[in-house]
Each structure stands twice: as C-alpha cells, then as structure tokens.
Amino acid sequence: MIKECRDSFGAERLKWASDCPFHVDPGHNYHDSIALIRDRLDFLTSSDKAWMLRKTAEKFFFS
User: Fold this and answer.
1) Would you list the domain boundaries of the chain?
2) What is the pLDDT along the chain (63 residues), one digit of tens a residue?
3) Which of 34, 35, 37, 43 is 20 to 30 A removed from 22 (C-alpha atoms)?
C-alpha cells in the first residue's frame, strides 16, 4: 500500500504518522512503527524517506 501511494502521489505528498494509539497496543511500539519507513522498505529512496518522515510535514505546517 505504501508503494502504491508513493507511486501514485509521490513522496512529497505523503507524511508518516504513528498510528497512535495502535502502536501502544501489546506487541506494537513506536520504534517498529517508524522503522518500517526508515529501515524496512527497500523501494524507498533516501529522498522518499526524507519527504515522508520530515519534509512533507515541514512544508505543510511551516511554509
């Protein structure tokens, strides 16, 4: 699903979110939630990750 969204809309229009309160349920945690984007999806470029984890939010909230 993440690949389809990136391919359809571009990383510049995607923003990572924690899925709170899901990530605090037993067996889920914040580290694993962010690691999905940061470490586990080999089709994401470093630029994609930068946009999804930081730059999209910066642009949206502070531009």
Assistant:
1) 2-62
2) 999 999 999 999 999 986 666 666 777 778 888 898 999 999 999 999 999 999 999 999 998
3) 43
